[in-house]
Amino acid sequence: PWRALRRRRVAVLPEGARRWQSGQSEAVARPADTMVPAEETRPAESYFSTITPQGGFKFDRLYPSETYEPDELVELDQMAMVSFNATDMPPVIVDKIKRILKDFNAKKDLERYGKYLVNKMRTRTAGEIPQVLPSIFLPQYEAGKSPMERIVNNPHFKDLGPIMDLPEMAEVSRLAIAHAAENKYKLYQVTWNTETALAYLGERFPGTYVASLRVLFEIGRRCPDFRPRKMMDYGAGCTPSIVAAMAIWRGGFHDMLAIEPSRHMRELGHYLTADFPNVRWQPSLFDAPSEHDLIVMSHCQLEVRKQENRDLLMKKLWNRLEPGGILVLIEAGTPAGFRMMHHARELFISKLPLDKFHFVAPCPHEGMCPIALTGRDWCHFGQRVMRVPHYVYNKGSRAKFWDEEKFTYLVIRKSEGPRSKYANELQAPTAWEKSYFWPRIIFPAMKRGGHVLMDVCSAPQNFERIVVSKSKNHFLGYQWARKAKWGDLWRFPKRINRPEARPYIPELVRKWLARAARTAVQALHWETEIDRGIDYEDAKKKE
User: What is the pLDDT of residues 152-167, one digit of tens each?
Assistant: First the structure.
């Protein structure tokens, strides 16, 4: 406490300093002919930085404190904490799952079906390995030297130039990677029946539910002006996303549309959401012409063949979204799932202007994804959830009663974002708008003795490692860092430990980055020449 600290501080001051602090005159304390030592005539504040009190405590220099009120600090802390501890499903849903699995009365068969089903699905979702993903911000070739440009510039194909619309090489490379992955890792087509639907309910419902709950919880916290009334759950399955949405926004939906082609899954979803009002079911997207302000597509992209079909589906869902609405994409936390999110991210950046959309989470910027350049890492997160009880459905070891669901996600809002409205965090008036400028903790924090290391993704396109030390001032966030979770935001000042959090970017990618930097410098130089009144073409020829 400050009162005890003040008593300790005054107790170690010299006698002259204590009398000076109490207002007692030196003339009263000493005879007139006594000389006062120089060190005892200094003000008491000078001893705070020179005297080491008993116990080895040394007073640090004073830093300027934060200019926020206590209530504002609490609001900022709450806005940064978007992850939570292990959670359970709603009790009503748990009771229904217990009842229907017990009534089936074939526990061993369901467990065998569930393991077989997950292993078959894992061959498509978890077979890929991390790799460098192309970006429109990263020039892989010099100007005029890409394969498509060489074909068009060839004299034998000169007639193709006026009629051929050249795509971006980054888009062509992404489509090539997707085509190679689909040919190598085959999609297992599930034929749903009563047994497989119930096995999926016991095996995968808790994980898909907590992934949706974690993403929708962050939307509800960081978008307080967003209050959905009409929701669409594409590929609803047994409705884990609808259950999660009802847990976040209770009683606020006028219309909840679940699109699921499987009849057995629809019946299972009907049973779980019987108590929810205004839930409709349809077998396909074409039967739903109305617009919605919240659309969720969870664990569906890998079940669609060909990247062109996935892009077309995403455009259809985006067109069904009302202005100010939110599109939520969730996939498994594997390199394949991250590749889907990266492709969707590049698709929005390349096709739409920044005043028409913005990323709510997890990206803190609309620039190039730095994690996609490492070739070894992929952006994903984890959230723990309680399993279905072992006596109903035994998923694995009986000593483990929780699962950690790994997922990757992307939240896009159909409006202009705070990063476009304001130049920096200081200009943002509210805490939730300030949070759009904060870095995100990409991997679990490394909590060591006396310091914490965190790998964060921050604007403009940095993947860096920051350190928070116990010896530094309290407003640098050490106490908060000890409680930080995987996926939280970092609202405190950054003390960079490594400009590259994982320094293993391939040399070829470093050449691409250097080429992009040279192009940016040249463009900046040309703009400067234009501002001076020099012709752009002449400046370009000089370069």
Answer: 777 777 776 666 666 7
Confidence of residue 273 (pLDDT cuts 50, 70, 90): very high
d(CA 253, CA 256) in angstroms, rounded, equals: 7
Distance of alpha carbon 212 from alpha carbon 164, whole angstroms:
43
Half-sphere exposure of 116 toward its Cβ, with a 13 Å CA cutoff?
A: 12
Q: Mean pLDDT over residues 227-232, rounded?
A: 94
**pLDDT confidence bin for 512, thresholds 50/70/90:** confident
* Cβ 11 vs Cβ 44: under 8 Å: no
Q: Where are the alpha helices (DSSP H) in 356-471?
A: 418-421, 431-434
Strands 292-298 and 321-332: parallel
Residue 204: which of 299, 324, 320, 317 has the closest Cα? 299
- For residues 213 and 297, the answer to whether their CB atoms sit within 8 Å is no
DSSP SS3 for 524:
helix
Is residue 28's pLDDT more than 60? no
3-state secondary structure of 153: helix
Phi, psi of 533 (to 5 degrees): 95, 10
| d(C-alpha 291, C-alpha 319), whole Å | 8
Is residue 120 helix, strand or coil?
helix
What is the pairing mode between strands 446-448 and 451-458?
antiparallel
520 or 300, higher pLDDT: 300
Strand, helix or coil at 507?
Answer: helix
DSSP code per residue over 10-54? HHTS-HHHHHHHHT--HHHHS-TTPPPPGGGSS-THHHHTT---T
Residues pairing with 63 in the sheet: none
pLDDT confidence band for 66 (50 / 70 / 90): low
120: its two tokens = 């078959």
